[in-house]
Amino acid sequence: MENIVRSEFVIGPTMNDISTLIATNVQGSPSILSAVPQLSPEEALKKEVDDLIEQGEYTQALSRALGGSNLPNLLRVLPRLKIEILSDLSQPVLLSLVQQLAFELSVDEHLKTKMEWLEQSVLYLETSSDVVAFHGAEILNIVSQNLCSAIAHMDQSTPDRRGESRALKSRMKLMLHVIQNLLADIRS
Q: Crossing angle for the helix pair 91-101 and 58-67, nearest 10 degrees?
């Protein structure tokens, strides 16, 4: 019996050996585990979201990206998803998506992606939902303010960017009307 234990130990460490290594590492002594690279929370979330996308778990991937409250990571994920998944999202997830997408609407390389997803997400919000009824007004008021600021910023843009901004500005104005209608439904 002793030979079997020894051969197992040679092949790989037992749970007791691993526990000893962890305890040794926690006490500050060097161990094998200190050589294993650890992912930062942001990198771990990125990897988790990427794995979910590879597995075809798109709604879960989007939910996890939103849960990280990391707009750059969310913007990295959105182009890899089909916008049709919005119909499968819960109202809290949709509201969170709207909130995060509207956080920063300055003209940047992601504005078209933000607007495309924001426009569609707002259309899926149900004012009869308890979550939207309770939190929606506050979030949609902020979205409305951010849209107004973005439109004002576009009005002040340089002449070479005005043509490019005109279509986007029209989309933002239309979005403002949709949001005002949602706010009216929530308040009634």
A: 50
135-187: per-residue pLDDT in tens?
999 999 999 999 999 888 877 765 555 566 788 888 999 999 999 999 999 99
Burial class (CB in 10 A: 0-12, 13-18, 19+), 152: exposed
Q: What residues make up the domain containing 10?
A: 1-36
CA atoms of 50 and 103, how far apart (whole Å): 23
Distance CA 179, CA 123 (A): 9
Q: Looking at the structure, do residues 116 and 161 belong to the same domain, yes or no? A: yes
DSSP 122: H
Do residue 67 and residue 4 come from a single domain?
no
